[in-house]
UniProtKB/TrEMBL annotation:
The keyword Membrane does not apply. Residues 1-28 form the signal peptide. The keyword Kinase does not apply. It comes from the Bacteria. SUPFAM superfamilies: Pyrrolidone carboxyl peptidase (pyroglutamate aminopeptidase) (SSF53182). It comes from Saccharopolyspora antimicrobica. Keywords: Signal. This is Pyrrolidone-carboxylate peptidase (N-terminal pyroglutamyl peptidase). Residues 329-348 are annotated as: Disordered.
């Protein structure tokens, strides 16, 4: 738990009579809803049976309807801003409480990240279709949506204790993704973020405080500076600086990877079916390195992590990149990192948003001159039982989720307490496609 008092969730999340209704259809009263206002691609998936089952079986089906009803009572912009920030924070805290066993509602695995994802989308859908009793232009609505996203992802509530004697670690995770292929998907990095938020790990070298935040699998928030806005206060030298940061996402089957190189190039289709294929641009006003480096290295204590017994899955130090060598035009895979003057086409973890969050955070580290341990961790792919093509949970899924989350916790503990180690480590040699990306699903 954080040192601050948790606000009551029950006072703003209401009525059990709405619990099994569709978040899109019923999250707001007809008097303040305009169903003709378009929803995002992510929000349009909400009425499908799987999201509805996940919400009902987690006890999160009441959240969006209660939020929509509360929006109808907001009499001015200031009241709406207060409602949105407090409701977003309470959603995050409710998801953290469930992941950490303090809220035992429902029969899904406690570490399951999917209820948070789908409940948030119900709330953003309500806000997108809200017709308030006062004037609200598109820019103001976008600002309210941005606030809801940030508060419901733990990005605004990162708080570390001041003073000596405790190490501070900031960890991030991601939403589920590739839902067009299987809408049941979970993301173990997001589940790990929920399970770790606010914990104090008592280690042989002293206590370690962990704070976490979640990020969307969407290009636009990254381009608008969501990553830098969240990490900058805790990377910049000063009283709020962390000792370690780790961005985490889902990677290859059956193994963890500690990624050494993060590339500037980004490609792929996000959760709103938007595509990118080009360099990752840094938003104006953000500290950065100029000219922009094509690759930025990890400063994680990878040798200590790889050589420790952290859990069920093997852990590798991945030094591979895909680059266009200086003076050439075609991409090549380099197993031992980039060559001078090359152009990035993929970091060790590919060229999707997992690589991008790693690039942005390690670049920010260097831009502010922070001598910190930090980099990216790819978890194993979270899978269902081979014969399960439709159930939202099964014993294999539950065991895999629990084991991955537990191993992420141990990796964080090792990284936070490790001394400088011998760089001689195991290196992953998994084949990649012609773009240099790891086999799907990868995040």
């Amino acid at each position: 738990m954080r040192p601050t008092v948790r606000r009551s969730i029950a006072c703003t999340l209401a009525s059990a009579t709405l619990a099994l209704l569709s978040p899109v259809a019923s999250q707001a009263a007809p008097s303040c809803t305009d169903p003709s206002r378009p929803l995002s691609v992510e929000e349009q998936r909400l009425p499908q049976p799987v999201p509805q089952e996940l919400l009902a079986r987690s006890g999160f089906a009441d959240i969006a309807p209660a939020f929509g009803a509360a929006l109808c009572e907001a009499g001015d912009l200031a009241a709406a801003e207060r409602l949105i920030s407090s409701s977003g924070e309470q959603l995050w805290e409710r998801a953290v409480a469930r992941a950490q066993g303090r809220d035992t509602t429902g029969d899904l695995p406690t570490a399951d990240d999917r209820p948070l994802y789908w409940a948030r989308l119900g709330m953003t859908a309500a806000l997108r279709q809200w017709t308030p009793s006062f004037p609200l232009d598109d820019e103001q609505r976008d600002q309210l949506l941005w606030s809801l996203e940030r508060h419901s992802r733990g990005q605004t509530s990162v708080q570390f204790p001041r003073g000596e004697g405790i190490k501070r670690v900031l960890v991030s995770g991601f939403d589920p993704f590739q839902l067009n292929g299987d809408i049941r998907r979970s993301n173990p990095s997001g589940a790990s973020a929920l399970a770790l938020d606010g914990l104090v790990l008592n280690t042989g070298s002293g206590p370690v405080r962990v704070e976490t935040a979640m990020f969307p699998v969407l290009w636009k928030p990254f381009e608008q500076g969501m990553v830098e806005q969240t990490f900058l206060p805790h990377l910049r030298p000063g009283r709020d600086q962390v000792d370690l940061f780790a961005t985490v996402s889902q990677g290859r089957p059956e193994q963890f990877d500690i990624e050494q190189w993060n590339g500037r190039w980004h490609t792929g289709v996000d959760n709103n079916d938007e595509r990118r294929d080009g360099v990752a641009e840094i938003p104006p006003g953000v500290p950065t390195v100029e000219p922009a480096p094509e690759f930025v290295p990890s400063t994680q204590p990878y040798a200590a992590i790889v050589n420790a017994d952290t859990g069920r899955y093997p852990v590798f130090h991945n030094t591979e990149v895909t680059e266009i060598p200086a003076g050439e035009t075609e991409p090549v895979v380099r197993p031992d990192g980039p060559t001078p003057g090359s152009a990035a086409r993929a970091g060790g973890g590919g060229s999707y948003l997992s690589n991008e969050i790693a690039y942005r955070t390690t670049l920010l580290r260097d831009a502010v001159g922070a001598d910190l341990r930090g980099g990216h961790v790819h978890t194993p792919v979270l899978t269902f039982a081979p014969d399960n093509a439709e159930n939202v949970v099964d014993p294999v899924f539950t065991r895999n989720l629990q084991d991955i989350v537990a191993q992420v916790r141990t990796i964080v503990e090792v990284a936070a307490t490790a001394e400088a180690g011998d760089p001689a480590v195991k290196v992953a040699k998994t084949p990649r496609d012609h773009t240099g990306r790891v086999p799907a699903p990868t995040m």
